[in-house]
Inverse folding.
């Protein structure tokens, strides 16, 4: 067990950021092998929106296994799959007047991104795809080609041949970056081919909690319609209720052609799902298959999470309520140190980031100090200069406040 004995092991893992061995978890808390408890403001980068070992999900899984439900069915029709589809359509799509086909694409986020890009290129017969600065869409070859940060790739093995990058909202301060995008589409000398699709996160999770405005998203949608470009929203990290609505784009009233979902869509189990407008179903039989597309345990977990949290607005309201607690407290902490440090707070729902503008290393130090206090927080941004807050959506108020107290203590210790 070399990885656990040698924290500097060449095997990469979170043990370097959070140097302990976790063994049990419940709600918004993790416990390590020594019995030390940690408040979790990371939630598997948005995979545990319903919390660790959610009681509704665990009991549904145990019950399903006890009655010998199908665990693996390749992509065959199963009861678990049928029930998940019905629930998703009734509780998520219909109330929002959304008409999408569902395609199960494998266990990971990268799997669904690859599928979306492949389908967009197939339908439009064009290879170029536009992505945005600081965007993150996964690290397999196609997804990596549209992931902004060069740190994840080497030019020798991933080319950007079929991808063009445009500045995300806010990249040039207040200037509307879509003017640049529009000009490049209009101007034949720009060297930009009309893309098959545009892919974006409405809040860039790995890229630094950069938040696209409602107006910017609406204008981007119009631009896509004008140039016959498919609009793909990658809702893997900030979908599934993270912003208070089930989809992160709902607040802008836009209607993407495709939506990629993963992380919390499986209720904590591996699953990814592509939603696409019915007329885009131009796959030939067998053109896009894969062994682990239909994880029946994830269908069970997902169905029960939707039934318990999306029948009414309770979870949404709870997210907005807890957003206020999180935001107010982060603003208070920020105010304390604003004189000495250039700090910016951004976010929506329960996805917030605190950026340290003049010294990128501060965010990582806060994460380490917070760990010592018993709080798990990750960093993000192209220089890891942003402390990221993604607590489970079901976190109770007491644990949220406890985590924020630990954070403030960690920052006070660091800056003293
Ligand atoms: N898209 C987004 C927005 C993500 O946040 C991630 C994962 N952080 C991915 C795609 C890739 O998901 P996975 O790591 O499961 O391949």
């Amino acid at each position: 067990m070399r990885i656990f004995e040698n924290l500097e092991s060449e095997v990469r893992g979170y043990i370097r950021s959070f140097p302990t061995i976790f063994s049990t978890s419940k709600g918004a808390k993790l416990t390590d092998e020594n019995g030390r408890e940690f408040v979790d403001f990371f939630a598997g980068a948005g995979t545990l929106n319903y919390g660790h070992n959610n009681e509704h999900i665990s009991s549904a899984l145990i019950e399903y296994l006890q009655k010998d439900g199908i665990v693996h069915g390749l992509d065959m029709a199963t009861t678990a799959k049928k029930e998940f589809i019905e629930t998703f359509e009734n509780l998520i799509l219909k109330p929002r007047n959304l008409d999408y086909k569902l395609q199960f694409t494998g266990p990971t986020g990268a799997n669904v991104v690859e599928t979306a890009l492949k389908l967009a290129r197939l339908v439009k017969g064009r290879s170029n795809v536009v992505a945005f600065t600081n965007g993150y869409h996964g690290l397999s070859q196609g997804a990596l080609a549209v992931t902004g940060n060069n740190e994840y790739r080497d030019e020798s093995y991933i080319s950007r041949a079929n991808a063009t990058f445009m500045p995300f909202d806010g990249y040039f301060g207040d200037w509307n970056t879509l003017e640049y995008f529009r000009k490049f589409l209009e101007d034949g000398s720009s060297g930009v081919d009309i893309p098959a699709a545009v892919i974006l996160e409405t809040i860039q999770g790995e890229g630094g909690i950069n938040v696209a405005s409602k107006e910017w998203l609406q204008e981007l949608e119009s631009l896509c319609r004008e140039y016959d470009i498919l609009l793909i929203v990658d809702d893997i990290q900030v979908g599934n209720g993270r912003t208070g609505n089930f989809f992160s784009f709902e607040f802008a009233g836009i209607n993407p052609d495709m939506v990629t979902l993963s992380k919390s869509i499986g209720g904590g189990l591996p699953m990814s799902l592509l939603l696409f407008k019915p007329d885009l179903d131009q796959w030939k039989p067998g053109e896009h298959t894969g062994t682990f597309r239909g994880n029946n345990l994830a269908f069970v977990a997902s169905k029960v999470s939707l039934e318990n949290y999306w029948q009414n607005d309770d979870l949404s309201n709870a997210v907005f309520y807890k957003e206020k607690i999180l935001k107010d407290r982060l603003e208070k902490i920020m105010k304390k140190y604003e004189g000495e440090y250039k700090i910016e707070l951004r976010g929506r729902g329960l996805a917030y980031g605190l950026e340290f503008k003049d010294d990128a290393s501060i965010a990582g130090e806060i994460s380490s100090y917070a760990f010592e206090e018993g709080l798990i927080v990750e960093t993000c941004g192209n220089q890891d200069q942003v402390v990221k807050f993604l607590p489970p959506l079901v976190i109770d108020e007491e644990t949220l406040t406890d985590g924020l107290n630990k954070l403030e203590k960690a920052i006070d210790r660091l800056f003293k």
Summary: The longest strand covers residues 101-106. DSSP finds twelve helices and 17 strands in the chain.
